[in-house]
Amino acid sequence: MTERRPGIAHLGVGAFARAHLAWYTQRVDGEPWGITAFTGRSPAAASALVAQDCRYTLVTRGADGDTAEVVETIVAAHPGSDAAAWRRVVASPTTSIVTLTVTEAGYRPGADVPARLVDGLAARRAAGAGRIALVSLDNLTHNGAVLREAVLGAVDDDALRAWIEQTVTFPSSMVDRITPATTDEDVAGLADLPDALPDDRVPVVTEPFAEWVLEDTFDGIDRPAWETAGVRLVADVTPYEQRKLWLLNGAHSLLAYLGLMLGHETVASAMDDARCRAAVDKLWDEAAAELPLPADEVRAARASLVDRFANPRIRHTLRQIASGGSQKLPVRVVDVVRRRLARDAGSGIGPGAATAVAAWWLHCTEQSELVTDPGAPGPDSDVHDVLAVIAPDLDTTPVVDAVTAAADRIRTAAAPARGTVDEGVLR
């Protein structure tokens, strides 16, 4: 294996990090960089990787078949409990980047992630190792700013806080690659897949599409030449975050709630239903009108999403996507509605957004056995209860009427007694 500079420390190693960060880093031109990986709470991932010299198979699952490649970017793996190794790696002058995939919960007050980062940064300051970038790869709006606030909030030493403010940069990023859970069948199938790592017990399965938009605020801090691997370096990631939230994530939520009501189990199945597809197109039309990006770029993103969603070999279940609607819908759907109304107060809520809100309402009230969201309205909720959770400022007569009408259309489409349903019923 090529000797790699262990310049990246990654916290929260899992399937997504191995399909995204490690894959991109392996593909860069110039000096080969390596990743020292640390788990979150469970040491299992580190033990499994160490058992096979930190190499693993990345299976790219296209609609027409699988391909395999061996990823060798991870040069060491440690359990998250190994605090001494963590401090040593972050304090090393060879390390100039720390990346994270710790989910949204890792940034909340009281979470242990900020404290672990502060512990490592304190060791780096003591070692005089110099400037470093902390890069969040989690699906959070302005994740760099969120990470900075979480880290500084965990510091109780004024001198250390001043050092962090002067020495550490927190670039925001937008990441995208669907990475379903690896199954026993996936592991068994490696035996028949050319270029797979022999006897690999921890492969990762992913879709062909990958995207990474990264804020260029490294200010001279050494990093891999990620742009040579297709990473887009920009001054502001906000428009790209909005594009992902409003197009990909918004459509996912709509497909989850509407698709489940119509009897579907996966994104691909729901996307193949003309009623769901029409609702998604309307939601995308509404989002496109508010996106601060060139129209041709938005059209290309929509076309790409149609292909991705329709891939029947990426089994992305609607039940998994449906979780957490009370937190997801405000940023995926309601934000677009607010911008639409701010631009044109008389435009009302769009039919795509009305269908998304109505579908979540029916999911919570008529499929309550599937709901695990503590913030969701109860099974006896009305439309006012739903809006009180996700958008109390939108509880107006026009919005209530539009959502109620959309809910009536969904009920009609979902009624099992109808059999074959007119595909125009949701329009």
Automatic annotation (TrEMBL):
Domain Mannitol dehydrogenase N-terminal: 7-227
Keywords carried by this UniProt record: NAD, Oxidoreductase
EC number(s) reported in the record: 1.1.1.17
One GO molecular-function entry: oxidoreductase activity
UniProt domain Mannitol dehydrogenase C-terminal: residue ranges: 236-367
InterPro entries cross-referenced by the UniProt entry: 6-PGluconate_DH-like_C_sf, 6PGD_dom2, Mannitol_DH, Mannitol_DH/Oxidoreductase, Mannitol_DH_C, Mannitol_DH_CS, Mannitol_DH_N, NAD(P)-bd_dom_sf
Gene3D superfamilies: N-(1-d-carboxylethyl)-l-norvaline Dehydrogenase, domain 2 (1.10.1040.10), NAD(P)-binding Rossmann-like Domain (3.40.50.720)
First-tier enzyme category under EC: oxidoreductase
Reactions performed catalytically: D-mannitol 1-phosphate + NAD(+) = beta-D-fructose 6-phosphate + NADH + H(+)
Family: Belongs to the mannitol dehydrogenase family.
Protein name: Mannitol-1-phosphate 5-dehydrogenase
